[in-house]
Amino acid sequence: MEKKIGTTTLSTVVSDITTLRVDAVVNAANSSLMGGGGVDGAIHRAGGPSILQECKKIVSEIGRLPAGEAVITTAGNMPSKHVIHTVGPVWHGGKKDEPAILRNAYTNSLKQASRHGLKTVAFPSISTGVYGYPVSRAASVAVSAVVDFVKAHPDAFVEITFCGFDDTTEREYASALQSSV
Ligand code: APR
Asked: pLDDT tens, position by position, for the chain (181 residues)?
């Protein structure tokens, strides 16, 4: 599914995000930045040890990465040029600021990308795996955050992709994108 906002294309795809040839893939990390399972594990496996080395350096400077914040490293052996590591909220029923933290994760990832002049970015479905965020709710927060950022920064990006690992997830982002204004 694709939608143009000004000159920026927002799209959805079903793929392993580590194979995408974009300027930056976003990683759904945890605050330790030391890797994990899910997409975090896939990115570290595909990218190789250089990503973890850079993450260790970042952690030595900032301690832990708070939920909703984002940092950037190279992408090691992956076809993308950078990895933007962000931490989504753990779902606790929706009453612990989860939507705001999830929105910040997308917004701060895009801030990092635009700060580095990156034009194409791919997001996984942040927080909807281990962190338990319901996909349909996460998709509407994610799409709204990205649409708002693109409207406020019309020349920042060429394409932003929502990368689902399965059809069900991709369909949620496609329908959220479809119904976004
Ligand atoms: N490419 C794209 N998407 C993927 C891939 C992949 N290779 N692998 C998994 N996913 C999808 C999952 O299917 C899910 O839809 O990423 C989405 C996010 O799931 P998680 O990776 O579990 O991330 P999250 O829910 O944000 O939990 C983060 O999990 O792996 C640990 O270290 C990580 O502690 C952190 C937590």
From this structure: 999 999 999 999 999 999 999 999 999 999 999 999 999 999 999 999 999 999 999 999 999 999 999 999 999 999 999 999 999 999 999 999 999 999 999 999 999 999 999 999 999 999 999 999 999 999 999 999 999 999 999 999 999 999 999 999 999 999 999 999 7
Q: 131 CB under 6 A from ligand 1?
A: yes
161 lines ligand 1 (CB under 6 A): no
Report CA(126)–ligand 1 centroid distance (Å).
Answer: 7
Give the separation between CA 149 and CA 172, rounded to whole angstroms: 20
In the beta sheet, which residues pair with residue 118?
none
The H or E element containing residue 168 is helix 167-178
CA 136 to centroid of ligand 1, rounded, Å: 16
**This prediction's pTM:** 0.98
CATH, domain range 2-179: 3.40.220.10
Catalytically annotated residue among 16, 23, 40, 97: 40
Rg, C-alpha atoms of the chain: 15
